[in-house]
């Protein structure tokens, strides 16, 4: 969530984090051959002790990765924990037979885990649901600061266009992300001002139809139904069936199918339908002054 809503770490948690960081920094890194042997023992033999020895030295890498994202305001302990989750995911998938060090492979998984955690918790509203939005979320501020550091006076519109071009995203996505990053989450129960008792939720416009319109709509619908019912009563049984099956259902019957049903040609069904529609219009015209008001 935004900074106004983030929970702060208590002193005890901070001290625990410091002890963990101090311990992690004291674990020596692995030589390449030793790392390969441990990864092979875990991958091929399921040796959990080998897994522990493989992962523990790289806890310092998880801590380093977490500190890179501390500016997002989330508790450092949570960021370190998510980085460790990514580290374990990397260990589960690491192939020791590839010419890649575990630290290089694990970095990608740790970064992905941290970023996903930030996107889930930075705001009440879900952030970064697309690849372009994720790219913007984690790079927009950095690129804006880079442009400003050049010392050149760049108009805000040109700045946005440059960001969009650098990240290969639409300009509208840049504008949308700017609004979300610059507008922190606020409770709807927050006061409008210090001098007013009203809450923000009191200012939300209710766009639903008012009761008068709803009641009027119900009455109009009932009136149309009564007029149509009376007009339908003037039809013969065969005309009534044709109108009902052709006009009063979503998937109307074809002229051919009705012709087979009545034992007549489809052209005869068309004639009966036209005659029935004429009767309906004439009867509706007698019932109301302006039949067009019903449509």
Q: Can you walk through the features of this model?
A:
The chain has 295 residues and is mainly alpha-helical. The protein is 65% helix and 2% strand. It has 13 helices and 2 strands. It has helices at residues 11-26, 32-45, 48-55, 59-67, 76-93, 102-121, 131-149, 156-167, 171-182, 211-232, 237-247, 255-262, 266-287; strands at residues 191-193, 196-199. Mean pLDDT is 80; it is low at 1-7.
Top keywords for this entry?
295 residues; mainly alpha; Arc Repressor Mutant, subunit A; 13 helices; 2 strands; disordered N terminus
Outline of this structure?
It contains 13 helices and 2 strands. It is mostly helical. The chain has 3 domains: 122 residues, Four Helix Bundle (Hemerythrin (Met), subunit A); 64 residues; 84 residues, Winged helix-like DNA-binding domain superfamily/Winged helix DNA-binding domain (Arc Repressor Mutant, subunit A, Orthogonal Bundle).
Helix-strand layout with pairing:
Layout: H1 11-26, H2 32-45, H3 48-55, H4 59-67, H5 76-93, H6 102-121, H7 131-149, H8 156-167, H9 171-182, E1 191-193, E2 196-199, H10 211-232, H11 237-247, H12 255-262, H13 266-287
Antiparallel strand pairs: 1-2
Helix pairs in contact: 2-3, 4-5, 4-6, 5-6, 7-8, 7-9, 8-9, 10-13, 11-13, 12-13
What best-fitting shape do the alpha-carbon axes yield? elongated
N-to-C terminal Cα separation, in Å? 50 Å
Uncertain stretches: 1-7
Helix content: 55-70%
Structural class call reads mainly alpha
Number of helices: 13
Could you say how many structural domains there are in total? 3
Query: How many β-strand runs?
Result: 2
Q: What is the CATH-assigned architecture of the largest domain?
A: Up-down Bundle
Radius of gyration: 35 Å
Order of helices and strands: HHHHHHHHHEEHHHH
Arrangement of strands in the largest sheet: 1-2
CATH class of the largest domain: Mainly Alpha
């Amino acid at each position: 969530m935004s900074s106004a809503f983030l929970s702060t770490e208590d002193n005890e948690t901070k001290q625990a984090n410091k002890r963990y960081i101090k311990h992690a920094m004291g674990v020596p890194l692995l030589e390449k051959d030793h790392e390969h042997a441990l990864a092979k023992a875990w991958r091929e033999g399921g040796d959990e002790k080998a897994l522990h020895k493989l992962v523990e030295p790289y806890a310092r890498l998880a801590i380093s990765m977490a500190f890179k994202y501390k500016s997002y305001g989330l508790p450092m302990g949570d960021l370190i924990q998510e980085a460790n989750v990514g580290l374990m995911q990397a260990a589960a998938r690491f192939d020791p037979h590839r010419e890649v060090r575990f630290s290089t492979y694990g970095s990608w998984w740790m970064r992905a885990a941290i970023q996903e955690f930030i996107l889930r918790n930075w705001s009440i509203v879900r952030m970064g649901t697309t690849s372009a939005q994720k790219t913007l979320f984690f790079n927009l501020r950095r690129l804006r600061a880079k442009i400003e550091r050049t010392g050149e006076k760049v108009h805000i519109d040109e700045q946005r266009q440059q960001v969009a071009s650098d990240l290969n995203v639409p300009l509208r996505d840049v504008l949308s992300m700017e609004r979300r990053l610059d507008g922190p989450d606020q409770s709807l129960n927050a006061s409008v001002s210090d001098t007013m008792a009203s809450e923000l939720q009191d200012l939300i416009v209710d766009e639903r139809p008012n009761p008068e319109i709803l009641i009027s709509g119900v009455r109009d619908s009932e009136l149309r139904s009564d007029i149509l019912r009376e007009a339908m009563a003037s039809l013969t049984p065969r005309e009534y069936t044709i109108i009902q099956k052709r006009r009063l259902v979503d998937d109307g019957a074809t002229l051919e199918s009705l012709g087979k049903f009545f034992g007549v040609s489809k052209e005869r069904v068309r004639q009966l339908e036209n005659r029935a529609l004429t009767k309906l219009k004439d009867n509706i015209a007698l019932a109301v002054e302006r039949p067009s008001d019903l449509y």
